[in-house]
Amino acid sequence: MIKSFIYRILENRHFWRYATFGQITELYALRTIRVIAMNIVSGFTSVYLYEAGYSVAFIMFFWLCFYLAKIPLSFFSSYILTVFGSRRGILISNLLYVPSMISLGLLPLIGSWSILLWGFFMAISASIYQICYMVDFSRVKSVKHAGKELAFINILEKIAIGVSPIIGGVIALWFGLPVVIWLTAFLFVLSALPIFWLVEPISIRQKVNFHGFPWRTNVCNIVAQFGVGFDVVTTGIIWSLFIVVAIFPGHGWDIYVKLGVLSSVTILTAIIISYAYGKLIDNSKGKQLLIISVLVNSLVHLSRPFASTASFIVGVNITNEISTTGYDIACLRGVFDAADLSGHRIAYLCFIDVMSNLGAAVACLTLLLCSLSLGDVSGFKLFFVMAAVFVLIISVARFNIYRK
Fold first, then answer.
1. Which of 9, 1, 44, 39 has its CA nearest to residue 256?
2. Rounded CA gap, 347 and 339, in Å?
3. Residue 238's domain spans which residues?
4. pLDDT tens digits, residue range 163-193?
5. Taking burial as the number of CB atoms within 10 A of a residue's CB, which of 207, 210, 213, 221 is the most buried?
6. Is the pTM of this model over 0.85?
């Protein structure tokens, strides 16, 4: 159903694509299903651990280990891609997410062991998926209109991200978060089934070639991903945790509904600006969009310590969505173009993933040290000030496509 819906939208607009309609719509559909499955529960996991009695320092230490583990897993995932292909890699990733969710659901029974197993399977699953998805999209995208395609897939993701947290929050309120976790595991099984019938666009049994990689023309672009990884953790993990610890403490299970609603109010903004940003990029305005979006995002982080009400949080979320979507689409367009020109597509996207994970790990370490030194609330506030500086690293990117 999702695939046919996407196909009808694209059918009359993208006749110039060198990939088939089926390839791109399959990628859109699979991405949307996975995003729905992940976001039903992913925004609540850190909060779930906190409500279960684990400290902020423990939670950030877990995420620090998680992202550090993903750095070598990026190279392992590149090998998996070359051996099995991108679609089989996505299948493996989705199936590995099932024991990850099952492990987290067993937290009340086996305690910290469930966290260890959850992190282990999730790290492998996320690493394999990221490499396979990036390489897959890089190969089947349109050369002339990649900005619109990135905008379209971003719109689908935002719709999924907007709806799924509310669903997850309501189910968590009525039946408890463990039920949401089991539901997520079931959805990942369903999302894996269609992959058995998809065409593989990647040549298998090839080798990842790191020799002769063009570092001189790509080092700034790779370094910029450090800031992206730092920002992903700041917005996706730490901001939700800050809301629970500093703004809505002691709200019990209904905090999941609040978080779901607060994270979903930006959906209309995301849909509108994604299409506009895609057109800007295709009209050679990507560099300006990247710089301005990064600066606005930095200001958003500076405002986070002053959040104290739901209306303030909504304002921060909307402004953050505007800025994050801008630099994200601009960066991805530049990354895919650079991957095409590098002659080392898989190696390039592997290095991108490594640097992003390193930035995410440093973000976790930064909050861990801030929390241990100043306490939770003051530590959060200092961290957001530091995040405003770290995200500026994104602006060092020098993509060739934006020099034309």
1. 44
2. 9
3. 2-403
4. 555 665 566 666 666 676 667 767 666 665 5
5. 221
6. no
